[in-house]
Amino acid sequence: MRIVIAGGGLAGLTLAHYLNRNGLDVAVYERDADIAAREAGYRIHINSTGTSALHTALEPRLWELFLATCGMPSEDMLLFDEQLNLRPGRDRAATEGTGVPTEIPEHLVMCRATLRRILYLGLEKAVHFGARVTGYRDNPDSTVTVLLEDGSTVEADLLIAADGINSAVRAQRLPQVKVADLGSRHIAAKIHLTSEAKAKLPAQLFNTFSMAYADDFTGLTLGPLERTDPTSPLIAEQEPGFQREATADYALSIFNSLPEGMLADAELFTSAPEALKEHVLERVAAWHPALVETVRLWDPATVQALKCSSCVPVDAWEPSNVTVMGDAVHAMSPALGIGANTALRDAHTLGNELLAVTRGDKPLLDGIADYEQVMRDYAYHAVRMSAFVGQKVIGHLPLPA
């Protein structure tokens, strides 16, 4: 079975590892020029759903490399007002996973770019960079021709869209799936956690995730990532760029606001990073001095504006030899921090179905149908829960009906 994955993000590469480890023929086509071509996101939250999928997919040494480069902070997830007074705690049940292993904490944190580097190791021959998938053609013999941006094509028995919220494959396969602008706007940045910077940050913010917000839903988050074992020999084996990245501690900080309080989109998404940082400093000037200092510590080179968007759940569709996973079908509000975990669960679930197909336990379309049914249940629940919590804490719009 020739399997093509469109997109070399976390979900696509985890699935590729799982399939490759079990002897399946898989090829990944990724638009980036190489694994380090761009900033592939910031810090992410990994719960036991995500660690279970990674543990199943990765060879033991890569799993150990993941544990060495992740962070294991205090599991608190605290809420504050803009003067750093503690707000009532939130129910954390929706942030918890459903998987194993149990010998590590339920809540880990990880650099998205570092995890992507780990997932690339061992797949060097399977991943094709500089190759954006733009669509496909169905063939009479039940195969699919995958179309690439440079005009070339690839033949496959199964095409899997793991190419993100703007997926070209999803747009063709499931045009009924719409992406909704939830209204809130965000400005994100990294803080390099040098000893000097850490001394300036409030100690109570050093947990899995903290957020301070005012009554108008203007908010500021801090999510530190302190590497578990930066001296690991497994890190020292990697190339210098990997080593520098995987041993650097930092915190992700995000300022969020409703549109009426933020720069207009035309300015927000074209302003220089320094101007965005200055805007946030003006907005939080009257907040607790430690929160103002948090923004002052932002690295301007990492500042970027973001839009809060979500896929809108749709009714079931007929299965085919083109399927979808991750943000391509269930991008969601970041309010619960479970988007990456849901995508990793897709890799685990779909991988299991494809292994069953190769064993002869079921036909391909039955395997795809079983995956899609289960995926819609857990993923659309996560989409709706994330949107609901985002309304309460971030103040964004409700998910369209």
Q: What's the helix and strand layout?
A:
Elements: E1 2-6, H1 10-21, E2 25-29, E3 43-46, H2 48-57, H3 60-69, E4 77-80, E5 108-111, H4 112-120, E6 127-128, E7 133-138, E8 144-148, E9 153-156, E10 158-161, H5 168-173, E11 179-192, H6 195-200, E12 209-213, E13 219-225, H7 233-236, H8 240-246, E14 250-257, H9 265-268, H10 273-283, H11 289-296, E15 304-311, E16 322-324, H12 327-330, H13 339-358, H14 364-393
Parallel strand pairs: 1-2, 1-10, 2-6, 4-12, 10-16
Antiparallel strand pairs: 3-5, 7-8, 8-9, 11-14, 11-15, 12-13, 13-14
Helix pairs in contact: 1-2, 1-4, 1-13, 2-13, 3-4, 13-14
Shape: globular
Total strands:
16
Helicity, as a percent range: 25-40%
Global Rg: 21 Å
Report the sheet with the most strands, covering strand number, pairing sense and barrel closure. Answer: 6 strands, mixed
Q: Regions with pLDDT < 50 over 5+ consecutive residues?
A: none
**What spatial order of strands do you see in the largest sheet?**
4-12-13-14-11-15
First and last CA, distance: 38 Å
Mean pLDDT: 95
Strand content: 15-25%
Helix and strand string, N-terminal first? Answer: EHEEHHEEHEEEEEHEHEEHHEHHHEEHHH
- Overall structural class, as computed from helix and strand content, comes to alpha/beta
Question: What is the count of helical runs?
Answer: 14
